[in-house]
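Figure caption, in words: inputs first, then the predicted bound structure.
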Amino acid sequence: RRPTLALIGATGAVGTVMRDIISTREDVYGEIKLVASARSAGKILRVRGEDLVVQELTPEVFDGVDIAIFDVPDEVSAVWVPVAAERGAVAIDKSGTFRMNPEVPLVVPEVNPEAARNRPLGVISTPNCTTLSMMAAMGALHEQYNLRELVVASYQAVSGAGVAGSARLYDEVEALAGDRTVGQTAGDVRKVLQNKLGEAESPFPAPVAFNVVPWAGSLKDGGWASEEIKLRNESRKILGIDDLKVSATCVRVPVITTHSLAVHATFEREITVADAHRILEAAPSVVVMDDPANGVFPTPADVVGTDPTYVGRVRQALDFPNTLDLFVCGDNLRKGAALNAAEIAELVAAEFA
Ligand code: 2RA
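Bound structure (3-amino-D-alanine present):
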């Protein structure tokens, strides 16, 4: 039979992409329910060519639901994911709440699909978009060369902070546009934004237009940002390498959608660029764009809205033969969020066949 699917958080930035993905991939579901907070309940949204009324998040909404995909804040998942699981649904959760729970698999279908079957709590987590940006590529390389260390710098798009993140960058760009004197004196960007946007709240701790912001997430011990800690813990869990050494610096950049990562990856043995190209070209859902002599490398502007992980600038580190330096781009709302959750849901749906 075809499983009933519920999308919780159907109206958010990821929810919108999720409806598009569910509508364009192979249709494996029976009924679909769209669910959101009371504020959005009653809205009519389109999925799979049908107009559906968004239902309010209540315990009863999960009755008869086989698979529930959650894209809601951590605190909402903490309350409602267990409710869905208790009522018999397999909950696929995009929040950070359950990712590191040893009884909850953290799944990237290209890397560890078998983990999705071992879900004692009825919950499967999907990783943070920053981790996901590189997992398909790193998983393929790890399978053959045994990954030992990752040093990563991220270039994260503003839509990682949701609809409010994208709105803020558009507002800032509009406020700064046309003034060819701005950006040349310390603090002038802040001043123009203050004048034009006033006290309007920003999800970012500094201007993001005409700027880069070395901060993403919340403050953790030792001055680390939560995104940096997630990247470390989640990479270890997905790849199944408990002692993987990981260090990251996460940076927000003025890009609407598509996260990029500069990755310095060290393996157990020597790896050449040709080896890496061969493996990455054979990896499902990885696209190699690596011909810098002809200006070919991935950029967010060229890959946004698409599904694969794009890899370019692959170099054998000059002083470290076991190390590759490479640049990865992935759409943070698609593979980074909605697509990975949809792919997990398809793995679960296949169990109903
Ligand atoms: C961000 N990775 O980019 C986060 C979203 N979960 O802000």
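The CA atoms of residues 4 and 64 lie 7 Å apart.
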